[in-house]
Amino acid sequence: MQDPFDQKKSQILKDIYDSEGPDASPKGTIDELCIPIMELINTNKDMVTTSSCSGRVSVFVEGSKGDYQDKNGVKIGAKGDGGHWLFVTHDENEVPNWWIDKSLVFNTSAATREGLRDDTRYILYKFEPLILHVKCRNRETAQKLYTTAMGCGFRESGIGTNNLVGIRISIKLDVPIGLYDASTEKCHMFMAEDYLSVLTKLSLDRFKENRRKLQQLYDAIEHSLKEDSPTKKESKQERANRMMEEGLARRETVRLRKQQEKELKQKLADAAVSN
Amino acid sequence: MQDPFDQKKSQILKDIYDSEGPDASPKGTIDELCIPIMELINTNKDMVTTSSCSGRVSVFVEGSKGDYQDKNGVKIGAKGDGGHWLFVTHDENEVPNWWIDKSLVFNTSAATREGLRDDTRYILYKFEPLILHVKCRNRETAQKLYTTAMGCGFRESGIGTNNLVGIRISIKLDVPIGLYDASTEKCHMFMAEDYLSVLTKLSLDRFKENRRKLQQLYDAIEHSLKEDSPTKKESKQERANRMMEEGLARRETVRLRKQQEKELKQKLADAAVSN
């Protein structure tokens, strides 16, 4: 009978690389930036990656807070009734000018405009950095991975139950940029449009720092794995070759799928126009 | 001989309540809001609180980034050369109008003003929520405390090495509000003054939510401790009485010390004027 950890690991890897789609996340694909570190971790027989996000920018409209008084507190950044994303991306190239075509209203004098009631629905701009969850076979492996991550400055990391290590860092942006008027469905920004360019610049800085930290973590984990078992591991070149081949194959699959989806959407759009 | 954990716990409690000062932190006193939960946790023989912050608002000027090109990345929110706090408080009552008398310049068109170079020094406004570290005697206690915290929505909690549990939640604000011109020593805000009122309102909302979560955590830990040892524990009334007495005594000590410091400062100021 297969060891329970090995069984779980096979299942997770199968789900990741399943023919139905490379990932169960709503986005549908694993962030490309995460693939090398995931593959590195998964080469070790005592670890398996369970979820990851390479970092993202999102703009979120809070849901209705009409019933906040029935609860014991103020709902902050909650989805609730009518909460929705204005924008979300894992690709830094998509960040500049994200606000074009969103019909935003700038320079709203918020404090005077409606007095910022407790049920005001804010629009929140966020940069969230890399987060990685790794299930380990035993406590020793979990502790070692945790220590490696902390040593690279992932200071908000921690071990949960069942030797699941959460690797977290605090390179963030969490900015209230406007308020949502549900009666007109307009987004009123608290500041001038050029502040969104400031946020773009600061987000790109954070994407860059995030990539640097990811690389640092990759190198530290690689070094730590080598220390563990110098003989059992592939050589650097062997691994590089294997990963390149696997990665190319996987990316080709994703590219084909995206192209098919695009063609399907185009067909649906054409059909809608001709009806 | 005393058990190592008990020895460590005695030392930590001694340091906290030492006659030299109730806490080793730069602020000099333990946040009042944290005292009840610290005392609750410390009644349990298998846990001791090692550090805590009940939540705070801070405004920080980044240090000089002159040498950023020598490093591998962009320094973000780093102290560096000349980094300093414009404002910091754990007391929500001090947040409104924190910017008065800081000679801030508003409505700076940042993106056009100097093109946001890589070495631009930003001014960052932050709300940071409750954080609590608890050292546990053994893994079981650590796991149980972790599970309790996660169950209350402290989703960024984790267990570190030596059964140290970090209890963290993500109610945050992390807002670039301006840039610092070192040549003139002026702080240029990216937006109008009324945006700082917006941030005040949002910070007060977060202080409120933070208090609610702290109470929820307190109740859950209390419940969990009762489950552990229904006979060994004090009754709710006994504990309430004891904590009130201890708390009053401690607060009186802190109050007296603050008053003495104030009188001393006044004397020094008077002496400076008369010289």
TrEMBL record, chains A, B:
<dbReference type="GO" id="GO:0030488">
    <property type="term" value="P:tRNA methylation"/>
</dbReference>
<comment type="similarity">
    <text>Belongs to the TYW3 family.</text>
</comment>
<feature type="region of interest" description="Disordered">
    <location>
        <begin position="225"/>
        <end position="253"/>
    </location>
</feature>
<comment type="function">
    <text>S-adenosyl-L-methionine-dependent methyltransferase that acts as a component of the wybutosine biosynthesis pathway. Wybutosine is a hyper modified guanosine with a tricyclic base found at the 3'-position adjacent to the anticodon of eukaryotic phenylalanine tRNA.</text>
</comment>
<keyword id="KW-0489">Methyltransferase</keyword>
<comment type="pathway">
    <text>tRNA modification; wybutosine-tRNA(Phe) biosynthesis.</text>
</comment>
<dbReference type="InterPro" id="IPR036602">
    <property type="entry name" value="tRNA_yW-synthesising-like_sf"/>
</dbReference>
<protein>
    <recommendedName>
        <fullName>tRNA wybutosine-synthesizing protein 3</fullName>
        <ecNumber>2.1.1.282</ecNumber>
    </recommendedName>
</protein>
<dbReference type="GO" id="GO:0031591">
    <property type="term" value="P:wybutosine biosynthetic process"/>
</dbReference>
<keyword id="KW-0819">tRNA processing</keyword>
<keyword id="KW-0949">S-adenosyl-L-methionine</keyword>
<dbReference type="Pfam" id="PF02676">
    <property type="entry name" value="TYW3"/>
</dbReference>
<feature type="domain" description="tRNA wybutosine-synthesizing protein">
    <location>
        <begin position="7"/>
        <end position="222"/>
    </location>
</feature>
<dbReference type="InterPro" id="IPR003827">
    <property type="entry name" value="tRNA_yW-synthesising"/>
</dbReference>
<keyword id="KW-0808">Transferase</keyword>
<dbReference type="GO" id="GO:0008175">
    <property type="term" value="F:tRNA methyltransferase activity"/>
</dbReference>
